[in-house]
Design brief:
Blueprint lengths: L15 H12 L9 E4 L2 E2 L12 E4 L6
Antiparallel strand pairs: 1-2, 1-3
């Protein structure tokens, strides 16, 4: 997506979906949320998961392998 392994940001987003929308608008991300998985603090979670200060959020794009 952005080609970086880690970034720390401050956001007023309440949940993972709002955060992704904010990042998409800021950085021009084009992948649809329907194909991305989200993890908070190393656990896959629904998009409406409420975020807390110091959470680690990972947006995982589709991958292929074999």
């Amino acid at each position: 997506m952005r080609g970086i392994s880690e970034e720390t940001i401050e956001s007023s987003s309440d949940n993972a979906e709002q955060l992704y929308d904010e990042l998409a608008a800021t950085y021009g991300l084009t992948l649809s949320k329907e194909i991305i998985k989200v993890a908070v603090n190393d656990k896959f979670v629904p998009w409406n998961t409420v975020l807390k200060s110091n959470d680690t959020i990972v947006f995982i794009p589709p991958v292929a392998g074999g």
